[in-house]
Amino acid sequence: MPLPNRVDPSGELIATPARGLLFGNRGGRIHRDDRTLGRRRWASRQWICCVLAFKNRHRAVWGNGYTELFFLDEPTALSAGHRPCFECRRADATAFAAAWARAQHLPAPPRAPAMDRVLQAERLVGRTKRRHPMALDDLPDGAMIADGDRACAVRGDVLLPWTPSGYATPEPRPPGARVDVLPPPSIVAALAAGYAPQWHPSATSDLTPPHIRRA
After folding, report:
1. How far apart are alpha carbons 60 and 13 in whole angstroms?
2. 43 with 66: CB under 8 angstroms?
3. N or C: which end of the chain has fewer CB within 10 A?
4. Region of residue 83 (left: phi > 0; alpha: psi -120 to 50; beta: else)
């Protein structure tokens, strides 16, 4: 059985044999010695998103160190409230901080601890995922919304339903809707300010909804 080490857009940890594009952690160890989970879902407010391979390092997943987590892609990680890692993804993290500064009208890009303090407050209500009501028309590419019991990513004029193995058939993006947004508002603002996340390949195929495609 796979470990419950895959993160969904709501930040929940699920078990699935599907593979993801990115790796990360929540500031330390949250698993037990028998590689199961208790109630803890983070060790600190340092929730990061990393590359799968870096400097030929190898880890025993859910061993003695921190709890390794995996993401379908970066919109998924951002939706859960993770930010790019400044060690293994320096260029992406720098671009993210610069977009954050533009969105917040800051004189300089913030450091990681400053962003982490904001994100911790925005992503949780106690131990529960915080949702943020917003206008769908205003959301940038890469934002995720809750749609009933599923999550959908915004990309151009469509919504992409999320699954553990990739995005399902695109659907039209309805105008004028109010939706529950999953990523913290500061991440949504950074996306709107130009941060470009790494998408799963299933998000880059034909994005025309089936009922309006032309032969």
Report:
1. 18
2. yes
3. C
4. beta
Alpha-carbon distances of 181 from 15, 37, 60, 70, 170, rounded to whole Å: 24, 27, 34, 21, 18
pLDDT band, residue 210 (cuts 50/70/90) = low
CB atoms within 10 A of CB 25: 22
Mean pLDDT of 171-192: 97
47-80: per-residue pLDDT in tens?
999 999 888 878 889 999 999 999 999 999 999 9
Residue 75 is given by DSSP the state H
Q: Report strand pairing: 158-163 vs 128-129.
A: unpaired
How far is the C-alpha of 131 from the C-alpha of 148, rounded, in Å? 13
Task: Give dist(CA 114, CA 16) in Å, integer.
Answer: 33
Three-state DSSP class for residue 104: helix
In this structure, how many other beta carbons lie within 10 angstroms of the beta carbon of residue 21?
18
> Between vectors from CA 21 to CA 18 and to CA 22, what angle results, nearest 5°?
115
